[in-house]
């Protein structure tokens, strides 16, 4: 049984924690899209680890972590992360036995980060405003991939073809850098030397990831696909143009790793019991300006600061209109509801069940980000729940009644079961209701 984990909102839902937890049931853990724009936090025995590129199963010995073709791969970030894990004793002396990188993944090079940064700086001075990217070169690297001038991991380990490919890759970039942004050009020789060095270091990690997965499927070994970002940041289905540049929805796991649709049986959407968003773009249930004290309270208790950039996350109530949409575009079979502990001891909680737009009540997530920025949320106000001792709760029936009602309301509205309830950042602070690997 193979399972995909996807973000059901705008990212940072707690995917890292769930992947770490589910890794005990899987043998292969696969990152299939995005890059080091992701920040996935794991808390094991009180120790926090933040992963940006390496799959969140890496703390488990004996499991294979794969970075598949759909990922945009920054080798410098990769080695930094590997070294941190080795220093922490989480990876042995031969980390390539546990972590493999697809030959087909596209490489993020320094000029991608530079273009990302310069573009955001320019946009912030324009009327349209910036996207608020993580400035990790993600968008420019995917652009080059689709424009068919990207550098793939396999090119890094073939110096004989690399120089010519790099020359082609930077031809237009240099015109852009010099004449549009008024910056400095990229020097081909030094970039080539840097890439050859990185390629040599990377060689033992490089693998035919698709082939590894085909073999695993053949032997029916359990695979866990780890999504990054969230549904509403998907380049096709999200709040375009305020999105990331990859397919964050479950479909991305297929093209992003080279398996067919029948390979994935369960799609678990990870959602917070409220909503957050980092970066610009519409956010109907945002309460930063309507209930600033409540927003501050949630941000403080939930420690809502970006795991990648440290930016404060924008905070709002749970948006079930957006979640219903996420259930549909992912074919979600279950929900992992995270951070419900953050809402303990609140007098009330609100849940958005519809939007008001131009005098009408609508129940569907609008296609246009312009419309979405104008909607007014329609809320169901529900009683809050008293503080409970998460460590002493062994089953869902021991949770406060109001909290159980909240969970039930979500399940009924979305017609999708909550399969996991997270009550704190730690691995053990979790109530597993059913096991997606066995259903
Ligand atoms: P991801 O990008 O989806 O993996 O999520 P992040 O790691 O960026 O952000 C989630 C944050 O919430 C991290 O700091 C987690 O340690 C933390 N977290 C996860 N689940 C829970 C939970 O149930 N309760 C609380 N209080 N924190 C949680
Ligand atoms: P995880 O995997 C939250 C957001 C950025 C910006 C937009 C585009 O930790 O949930 P990009 O750098 O990708 O071009 O930025 O997407 N973004 C995320 N927001 N969590 C993430 O990842 C994100 N990765 C990108 O803030 O709004
Ligand atoms: Mg994150």
Q: How would you portray this structure in words?
A:
- This protein has 439 residues and is an alpha/beta fold.
- The protein has 3 domains: 3-101 and 206-266, Adenylosuccinate Synthetase, subunit A, domain 1 (Adenylosuccinate Synthetase, Chain A, domain 1, 3-Layer(aba) Sandwich); 106-202, Adenylosuccinate Synthetase, subunit A, domain 2 (Orthogonal Bundle); 271-432, Adenylosuccinate Synthetase, subunit A, domain 3 (Adenylosuccinate Synthetase, Chain A, domain 3, Alpha-Beta Complex).
- The protein is 32% helix and 20% strand.
- It has helices at residues 15-22, 75-87, 110-124, 138-146, 153-156, 159-180, 188-202, 209-218, 251-255, 292-302, 320-330, 369-372, 401-414, and strands spanning 3-7, 28-31, 40-44, 47-51, 64-67, 72-73, 99-102, 106-107, 206-207, 223-226, 266-272, 275-277, 314-316, 318-319, 334-338, 348-357, 360-362, 376-383, 418-422, 430-432.
- A 10-stranded mixed sheet has the order 9-7-5-2-10-1-11-15-19-20, with helices on both faces.
- Helix 3 (110-124) packs across helix 4 (138-146).
- The chain is globular, with a radius of gyration of 22 Å.
- The N and C termini lie close together (8 Å).
- The model has no long low-confidence stretch (mean pLDDT 96).
- 6-O-phosphoryl inosine monophosphate binds at residues 7, 11-12, 37-40, 131-134, 136, 138-139, 228-230, 233, 244-245, 278-279, 307.
């Amino acid at each position: 049984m193979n399972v995909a984990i996807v973000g059901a909102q705008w990212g940072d839902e707690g995917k890292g924690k769930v992947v770490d937890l589910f890794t005990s049931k899987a043998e292969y853990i696969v990152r299939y899209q995005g890059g080091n724009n992701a920040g996935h936090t794991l808390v094991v025995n009180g120790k926090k680890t933040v992963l940006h590129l390496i799959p969140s199963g890496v703390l488990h010995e004996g499991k294979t972590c794969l970075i598949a073709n759909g990922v945009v791969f920054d080798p410098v970030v990769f080695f930094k992360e590997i070294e941190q894990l080795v220093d922490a004793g989480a990876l042995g002396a031969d980390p390539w036995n546990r972590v493999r990188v697809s030959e087909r993944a596209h490489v993020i090079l320094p000029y991608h980060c530079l273009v990302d940064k310069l573009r955001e700086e320019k946009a912030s001075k324009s009327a349209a405003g910036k996207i608020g990217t993580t400035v990790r070169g993600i968008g420019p690297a995917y652009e080059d991939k689709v424009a068919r001038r990207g550098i793939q991991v396999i090119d890094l380990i073939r110096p004989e073809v690399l120089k010519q490919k790099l020359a082609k890759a930077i031809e237009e970039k240099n015109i852009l850098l010099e004449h549009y942004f008024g910056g400095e050009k990229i020097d081909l020789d030094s970039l080539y030397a840097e890439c050859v060095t990185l390629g040599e270091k990377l060689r033992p990690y490089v693998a035919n990831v698709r082939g590894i997965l085909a073999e695993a499927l053949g032997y029916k070994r359990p695979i866990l696909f780890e999504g990054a970002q969230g549904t509403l940041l998907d380049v096709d289905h999200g709040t375009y143009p305020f999105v990331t540049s990859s397919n964050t929805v479950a479909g991305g796991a297929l093209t992003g790793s080279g398996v067919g649709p029948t390979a994935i049986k369960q799609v678990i959407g990870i959602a917070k019991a409220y909503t957050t968003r980092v970066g610009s773009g519409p956010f109907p249930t945002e309460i930063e300006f309507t209930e600033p004290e409540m927003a501050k309270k949630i941000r403080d208790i939930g420690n809502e600061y970006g795991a990648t950039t440290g930016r404060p996350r924008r905070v709002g109530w749970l948006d079930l209109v957006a979640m219903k949409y996420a259930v549909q575009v992912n074919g979600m079979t279950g929900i992992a509801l995270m951070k419900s502990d953050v809402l303990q001891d609140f007098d009330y909680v609100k849940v958005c069940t519809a939007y008001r737009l131009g005098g009408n009540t609508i129940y569907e997530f609008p296609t246009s980000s312009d419309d979405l920025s104008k909607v007014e949320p329609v809320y169901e106000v529900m009683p809050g729940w008293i503080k409970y001792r998460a460590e002493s709760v062994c089953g869902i029936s021991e949770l406060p009644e109001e909290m159980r009602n909240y969970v039930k309301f979500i399940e009924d509205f979305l017609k999708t079961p909550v399969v996991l309830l997270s009550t704190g950042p730690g691995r053990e602070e979790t109530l597993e209701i059913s096991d997606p690997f066995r259903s």
